[in-house]
Amino acid sequence: MVAARLLDEYFDYLRFQKSYSSHTIKAYSKDLAQYLEFQQDRFDESKIELAVSDFIRSWVVELVEQGVKPSSVNRKLSTLKSFFKYLTMMEVVDDNPATAVRNLKLPQKIPAYVRKSEAERLFDDLQRATDQPLEKAVLMLLYTTGIRRAELIDLSLSNVDLTQGQMKVLGKGKKERIVPLGVEIIGVLREYLEYRKDISATSGHFFVRSNGKPLYPKWVYTCVNKVLSQYSNVEKRSPHVLRHSFATHLLQNGAEIAAIKDLLGHSSLASTQIYAQSDIAHLKKIHKLHPKS
């Protein structure tokens, strides 16, 4: 079977069987055409089904030498793995040669977070504020508990126990976890509930807008972005930045990484380790202040 026919059949499979978007199929097509051109030029082999791991590994090396970003190289490699998986399924090839080629290691991005001094000033001002109890409660709950935006929106009235100082949160994968509430945030939430009574909301959601309807993602984003822009120079000003700030500040204050994992609702410690990198970066910055550094 010629390469063009194999590729056409593969794209039909993606389009009709996998329901991939035209944008995704176009990207796959570009990656595969680029690889096939390389294989023909370097190894004088026009049949893509005759590719071997060494061909693909050489292509990866060439991409790196050309300065292609590791994330882009990995995406292209993923395209090849998907294509040869299809050929294996169709019994065109016996093995997937791309699986023997490792992804490039990606540089770990340190999550953006609000500095402690900025957070203290922000939330001190919020505590003194008497208007906008909803916005105040949303911002303080995100920062003091580290819950996700979706978890905040879905939080039900029946799952918040201010007497016990805790709330039940439904996280990713429908996993429930108990999140403790501090004295300060409990006071803010009680203040919000007084405001909520006047709305006469019928929704079971804990947080509702002035019209009695639940919050939605854009509302929460706009609320957080507006306030952070007044207090912090952090580049990203999304609700997730407050989650990152919660975890980072806990770590900087000596909290154990395993405890932070449980509070954040991460399924594995690997997801939480990124905050350790953030703390190291913080320590390095402080160390530069030493006269002999």
Number of strands: 3
Strand order of the largest sheet: 1-2-3
Beta-strand content:
under 5%
CATH class of the largest domain: Mainly Alpha
Secondary-structure element string: HHHHHHHEEEHHHHHH
Could you characterize the architecture of this molecule?
The protein folds into 2 domains: 3-100, Tyrosine recombinase, N-terminal domain (DNA polymerase, domain 1), CATH 1.10.150.130; 116-287, Orthogonal Bundle (hpI Integrase, Chain A). Helices cover 59% and strands 4% of the residues. It contains 13 helices and 3 strands, in the order αααααααβββαααααα. A 3-stranded antiparallel β-sheet has the order 1-2-3. The longest helix is centred in the first third of the chain and has 22 residues, at 22-43. The mean pLDDT is 88.
